[in-house]
Fold this protein.
Amino acid sequence: MSKNFENVELSFRERLQKISNVKELEEIKVQFLGKKGELAQFMKQLKELSNEKKAEIGKSVNRLKELFQEKIEHRREELKQGEYEHRMQQEWIDITTDPFHTEPGSLHPVTVVQQKLEDAFMAMGFQVLDGPHIETEYYNFEALNIAEHHPARDMQDTFYFEDGHLLRTHTSPIQIRGMERLKPPLRIVGPGKVFRCERTDASHDSCFHQFEGMMIDRDISVAHLIYFMKTMLGEVFDSEVEVRLRPGYFPFVEPGFELDMRCLLCQGAGCKFCKRVGWIELIGCGMVHPNVLRSGNIDPLVYSGFAFGIGIDRLAMMKYDITDIRPLHGGNLNFTRCFTVL
Ligand code: PHE
């Protein structure tokens, strides 16, 4: 009989070791302490024994009963603790983080200026058009009156693909695509990235941004051009500006001009900013060349128009007093955040 007690105790201990949850614990409880359990079996046998033996066995059964109960409750506590720790691992949240803290984004200086320009022109009845960065030679050069061996191609060297495509050197192809799609009278602007094979320095980068515009109607003259340029610059710099035209060469306009703005810092007296000349060269522009109108299926005997192109990065640099173009395209948020408004 005592051998049996030992066996029961041993198997109880082994089972208890192996279990991993409370459900199994309850099963063990039933198996050993339940009405039909192992200990109950011993009690059943008591009837047939002498009083002396009864007392002895009864004592042993009670000892085991207490032992089992104690071990089971102890194991229950262990399991509870284990489950708690497991849940802590699975479900922990870092209460030191602030879920409501979000950093406000801000617009890039180039985007701010581009949007200002777009708004100004949309308010004057212009449509904003887009065009591909990867262009054909036709749209980037030929249709703009720059023939294959024309020296003007040298000034706008770019990156060529093996299939003859190229990265556009200016936003002027948007004009051609616009003319093809829209009938005159038309007012369009086309902002975007342009690319040139340049040696980079503080004022040159191989990628920069231009804002191009074109207006075509009957009897458009240089006076229209000057009006729109003055209005545009007034919007960007939030003040009245004075402009002047100098002759400038661009194959796609005739006559062609460089448009200068009187320096806003020294009012024309000459300062470091305007290199002591009092004027700042800003815009390439002119009256659209008849060959270009023809490329856009527009009759130059009926219609005329002006076109212009301006560097957005340059405007942003002037507006925010940035002296080097390269960090503008560097992607360093700490830099761009300094200059932008929401
Ligand atoms: N596309 C010219 C350039 O990149 C700018 C320009 C546009 C000049 C329209 C005249 C008219 O240099």
